[in-house]
Amino acid sequence: MSARPRAGSQGSLEEPDDEVMPYSDDETDEELQSEDDLDRAEDQLPEPEPRPAPVPEAGWTILANDREYCKRPEFQKKVFLCIKKSRYSDNAIKTYKYNFLTFLPLNLYEQFKRAANLYFLCLLILQIIPQISTLPWYTTLVPLVLVLGITAIKDLVDDLARHRMDKEINNRRCDVLLNGRFEETRWMHLQVGDIVRLKKNDFIPADILLLSSSNPNSLCYVETAELDGETNLKFKMGLKVTDEQLQKEDQMAQFNALIKCEEPNNRLDKFLGTMIWNGESYSLDLDNMLLRGCKIRNTEMTHGMVIFAGNDTKIMRNGGKTRFKRTTIDKLMNYMVYTIFGLLVLLCAGLAIGHTYWYESIGSKAWYLNDGLGHSSSYRGFLSFWGYIIILNTMVPISLYVSVEVIRLGQSKFINWDLQMYYAEKDTPAKARTTTLNEQLGQIEYIFSDKTGTLTQNIMAFKKCTVSGRTYGDSTSADGGALGRGKPVDFSWNKYFDKNFQFDDHSLISCIRSKKDAQVLEFFKLLSLCHTVMVEQKEGELVYQAASPDEGALVSAARNFGFVFLSRTQDTITILEMDQEVTYTMLALLDFNSDRKRMSIILKFPNGRIRLYCKGADTVVYERLNPNSMHKESTQEALDIFANETLRTLCLGYKDISQEEFDAWALKYQQASISMGNREEALDEVYEEIENNLMLIGATAIEDKLQDGVPETIAKLAKADIKIWVLTGDKKETAENIGYSCELLTDDMKIHYGEDVNVQLRNRQTQRRNDPQGRSKKLKETFFPEPGKNALIITGGWLNEILYEKKKKRRRLRLKKLRKRYRNSNNPTDVNQPIDEWEKEKRQEDFVDMACECSSVICCRVTPKQKANVVSLVKRYKKAVTLSIGDGANDVNMIKTADIGVGISGQEGMQAVMSSDYAFAQFRFLQRLLLVHGRWSYIRMCKFLRYFFYKNFAFTLVHFWFSFFNGFSSQTAYEDWFITLYNVCYSSLPVLLVGLLDQDVNDKLSLRFPKLYLPGQQGSLFNYRNFFISLFHGIFTSLIIFFIPYGAFRQTMGQDGEAPSDYQSFAVVAASSLIITVNLQISLNTSYWTFVNFFAVIGSIALYFGIMFDIHSAGIHVIFPTTFTFTGAASNALRQPYLWLTIILTVGICLLPVICIQFLHQTIWPSDGDKVQRNRKKYELEDEEEERRKKKPAFVRGGGSRRSAYAFSHSRGYADIIATGRSVRQRPRVRPELRDSIREVPQAENI
């Protein structure tokens, strides 16, 4: 067997535990104190002089059934000045931003924080001042009100949705003990200390201490899908004393225990507290707690006491801060607006200086220009500056923001309406939960994904096995002949079979039914007996409750093959062996843990034989095999094949034990089980004594089902140069196995683990320290010789070790201490620790650089906070656009931290969806969201912005050229109403449609050629270069539009003998040329033509002429003589053929260079999009041909070999409660006749 390549590593004296999920925040003062003492002892620092201890504040103490207790003065905290409130939160959740009174002022305040809105407000104020107003005030007021109104309505709709969600959650009901009896109360009215009663399928309203339940020994099953996306059940258990004394309503009314516990924190894996009741103290831990967001399952009635409520609950503490997200284009657009404003001020200052000079030299000497005001030339120049600020304000177009919002809203609707992102199985469409981030979807460089429920379905399926050296699972007939694509085995002979279970090997079922091979029977007997699965009878049906889906899949497989697990008591297990019921006496249950990587059970057969059954990871089982055990090599070969197929494997073995050997071992076992110190270590040593000399039976292979299309999606995104990192709380082995399954990891990759990474980073740190210029120069050497053939797998413990994130408060003290010691000594005590904050940041930057050199990165056993920290590091040091995708509450912080957050919907857990920007039901939809909608949105927005800036420069700068011929007098080159309607009516619709509908290639070609996504990552379609191209294009167009009509109007004569060279005729010709030019220019920029685009271009030009003839008519002038002053200008000017020729010439000269440049670009320097578009017809024909002959391809696995991760419980099993009998009901068991179908895991029921 060839082992998987792994980077060499050096040992570490103190390595973090890969199985532990570390938390780096929210420590209690006791933890910090003990760590500080430990540090002092290690560093041999002198004790500081004794000081008076500060008076500690009141801890988190709660008195049961006493709401007034928490309102005492010692539990008050200052909110503002002398205003105080209780430090205990109520249970109401508030995620909304506004209420009825605060909406208008707060929303306007937020909108005027946007520089452009504030600029236009100031402009409006300037236009009201008569001395400097050159345009009517309504030309700014109408667009500004439109912008503010549309944005306010959108914000109001979003906030109303948050109000509805909060109201729905806060108004859920549960039973609370008030005045001696249970009353139905809304969640929002719950308070700490309340006693609540919950029923089956109820959501848990707060973090509650479990007191009692309807199950024996107050056992309670919960589903944690809201927290971690996992649907397998977990159990909680009340204290023995509360279980015995708190079953009746009157007993609970008398309950007056005092709870002292840790303060609210975000640690989902830990709770420490003490209950003081009737003079006795009882310790509390996480097994006694029911966390908010979980759901009660398979427990008819549960009673508990509220410990943390509302924002103090662990699920809310893990939510992280809600961050205001803005796209890269948004930020760039703001900088460009500042640039335009700077240019505007410079232009206006230059024109004001010009007016001062002109008035001094010419204007003051011309008697006919005397206005009688007597202002000095400097003062007139000052007024001219503000006048030009008003005239040239359209360089910073307010309509830009309205148009952007409309385009984003339309793009969001297209995502919602996309039927190819609709998941019919659960009736779940894609949902854009924000309208402000669509174009950012076209710029993603890094994706951070959860595993369970995101990449996988968290459903295990029994696929193959090997028994006595023979492998089963391929499609074979009963006599072992290959069937190719044969039909599945018919299990109808077994009345307990599961209709959803499929197996293709007919030879295995033939072997079992004929009972020819005793080893095969022993194999499935072991699977039906060696487990910690609990079974419950529900309406005549067996319901299996497994600590993990792996165990459930194995027991379910045994059931289908005729070995049905029926029931268990404290010391017996009953199974049905091929229609014969047999009960075995359970002598000992040796449970799984992360160190042992195996579990065993010792049984006494009805004939008196004692046998140990063991199942576990192949590495640990092979170490404990009897030297005479058979089929080791053939089983190993089968394991390698299973591993290569990315299946999760377990080895099975057994051992016969004599009565004397068992009696001697049982005595040691009993002593170890009651040991007060190091009990787990003592039990592990005793287990080692009995788990040896095993006889190998075979191995199982389980498939951890990926969601459909996950490997294909990851491969497609990788071709688009998008890097995918998996951040999961699962074990390292499980995460690594999924990495191979979804093809993130391949056999030719060199995998680097935490210890390897730590060594490399320490070497880089030492190199930097030894270099005299280490702090001033950046080391450019790569970490790996072959950057593309590396993968990184790192656990949360190593992540903290590498990034120096062990403890927040402790880290600050330690950095200060180390820096002081480093400066006072030439040889620091710990060369591996950072000497200051700069070195810590460099270490983090080195880690990010190293990780980004790898093709794949998997972080396992990481906390929600660590997930968010990893995302933050990549954002900070790579300046990259990031996307996070997950489905559970443990992913919320990561989702909020990334630039784009995506929630997987359609599962039980909706916390991730509620915090996300986009939501859909399957991971595979991500490729369409990014490669189609994201790319289109980015291209459309870039094209829209480039054109929008161009058309406004072309429009506005005509005033600039005109100023050289009007004495810099702030006179406009166009009519006032044309200026008002230019961006609203005459040029808005065509560019809006390009922003909504344009596409360079269709969706199929976008998915077929992922490389088309690269321009978005590079930001090459909209940047300062494109901005200045638009600026110079606009300058060129404005020059043509002004000077060609100006030259044409000089010394001309019309057909009627009249000179058409008046100001109003010039304004009409210039405006007409501009409208035709900009509308034809957007036609040249349109890649995807529809009837709507054609209608918009023609309609905009027609609308311009229609409105112009109306507002230039005599009739409207009579009604509003001061507002409409261009009476008859249009009809007089446009009846002259000479002026029509002028317009045609102007438009032609404006567009001809653009046509030539576009032709050269597409011919000589075509982009990838141009190349695909050129061959579009050919590709479409190929796609049609492929669809016609398309057949479902057989899945081909990789070719290398490696050791698979073992399939086993993600956490400890139910051995504790089985062995103590706490799960066994006290009344006699009556087993009714069972139905034909037996469920492995209960399906979620609707509330």
Structural class of the secondary structure composition? Answer: alpha+beta
Strand order of the largest sheet: 16-35-34-33-17-29-32-31-30
Number of helices: 41
Cα separation of the termini: 52 Å
- Percent in strands: 15-25%
Say how many strands there are.
35
What's the pLDDT, averaged over the residues? Answer: 81
Main sheet properties = 9 strands, mixed
Instruction: List low-pLDDT spans.
Output: 1-13, 24-58, 822-829, 1192-1203, 1225-1247
The coarse silhouette is elongated
| Cα Rg | 38 Å
Helical content band:
40-55%
What does this entry look like structurally?
- This protein is of the alpha+beta class.
- The protein is built from 41 helices and 35 strands.
- The longest helix is centred in the C-terminal third of the chain and has 39 residues, at 925-963.
- The chain starts with 28 loop residues before the first helix and ends in a 28-residue tail after the last helix.
- 44% of the residues are buried.
What tags apply to this protein structure?
1247 residues, alpha+beta, nine-stranded mixed β-sheet, nine-stranded antiparallel β-sheet, elongated
